[in-house]
Amino acid sequence: MAMYLLEQGITPLVIEKETFPRYHIGESMTGEAGNLLRALGLEDLLVRNAHPRKQGVNVVARNGNSWWVPVMKRNDEHQLEPAQTWQVRRSDFDRDMMAETIRRGAKWISGRAMQVRRSGDGTVTGAQVKCDDGSTVEVESEVLVDASGQFTWLAHQGVTSAKNPGRYDKQIAIFSQVRNTIRGEGWDGKDRSKHPDNTYIFYADQYHWAWFIPLDDDVVSVGVVSPSSYFSSKGESREEFLRRELAELNPDMTRRLKDLTLIEEARAIPNYSYHITEFTGKGWMCIGDTHRFIDPIFSFGLYVSMKEAQFAAPAIKRYLAGEGRDLPNPFIDHMRRMEGAIDHLQDLIDGFWGASTSFAYLVNNPRTREQLIDLFAGRIYDVTPESHPAILELRALAEKARNSGVLWGEDRRGSGFLAASA
Amino acid sequence: MDTIEQTVKSFILDSFLPGADPNQLEADTPLITGGILDSLATVQLAVFLEQHFKVEIAAHETGTENLDSLALIGAFVRSKLAA
Predict the structure, then answer these.
(1) Considering CB atoms only, which of B39, B44, B58 is closest to A393?
(2) Cα gap A25→A200, rounded to integer Å
(3) Which of A16, A42, A174, A406: CA 20 to 30 A from A250?
(4) Which residues of B touch A62 (CB under 8 A)?
(5) What's the gap between Cα A281 and its chain centre?
(6) What is the pLDDT of residues B34-49, one digit of tens each?
């Protein structure tokens, strides 16, 4: 966010409670996330730090059936061509991003935002910050951007609308890292599906799956996601659960994990799915995970945060120049645009969990494959069903699954909100 | 067996049941629920139907209600061709 503001000629003040490096989940990037970093001039940094070069995602069922989605970009003629993105160890990546942000001119406070400040009409005007040196400062702001991720600071402060459970809020993710895995079998420099830096998604049953994300030449991030009730029923510690699941969940994953020694603490995030429908207002906005998180399966979290920041920066510049100052929500157009894009991700994920075989049909059907590759890459902004008819097929899949009780909950896309706000 | 069913039967025998006795695959033999077609084979069958018969099959139509037997597939493709 800070880098995008700097590009707009705005000098941001970053309030950062973390001390880097520190562990963080969310390590895999979509194709378009890689392009964002290139556009920010960060490719050399990523290459220098030898982050794994992700070529795509292999999705492997328990019976060994699999499908492959390559990272592809759209060239100037709008044709798809091979591309690559990155997997990043977030402790390193986030440290480097923070350092680069400061190097480019952002100001920063090492401390914790404690209390939002608002004027009489509700405009957010700043925050009280407790600094790491023990002092307390009042920070005044023209625009306060919540980039606190799943901490959802402005939601906790009561500034946003309610933080409602998402469709996958009954899930739990448990994760760590391992070494000595089998990666890139048969990689000959041609078949990108066999590249050793690729992501694997192994699934067992509906809502029960695991990720495998290389973080360097040796270490792989592994995680298991399942219904929370399933985790509870096992009566195991997080580490016991993770190690047993990694050994049992999917035969191909079992084969690839030769050593189940966890080299990081087994961490857990329960109830990770939520949705805040009103996430901008006068003097404030939320980006990325601070307003909505659906499901980690297709690694959209890091990308959405970065992409929303890219869109937010010019909107903030226009606001600072006086545009929309008299409106109750000067950023409503931005909010609708972001919400509509994440609705496409909801359709994608709901379609997958609603009917994985029918979803695989869309991925492997020449009629729809390019549209699915676009969605997986993150080309979701300003996309319409007219330009991507497969979106309608995904929605129909999800609707059929909901009606038959296969898919949890009601329709949680933002379209209802959009209609109500129009 | 109608032409559509015969064409689909040949595709299934060639693709997923090489060497099997063709007489064992009857019009009402359960294909998906009977374990003849796994998920990948079902995907391949649906793509084949779309391309061979020049019909558009939506993803939500690729379930057992339309693809679980040669008879169901025949009726489904005929309905698509008539639409």
Answers:
(1) B58
(2) 16
(3) A406
(4) none
(5) 23
(6) 999 999 999 999 999 9
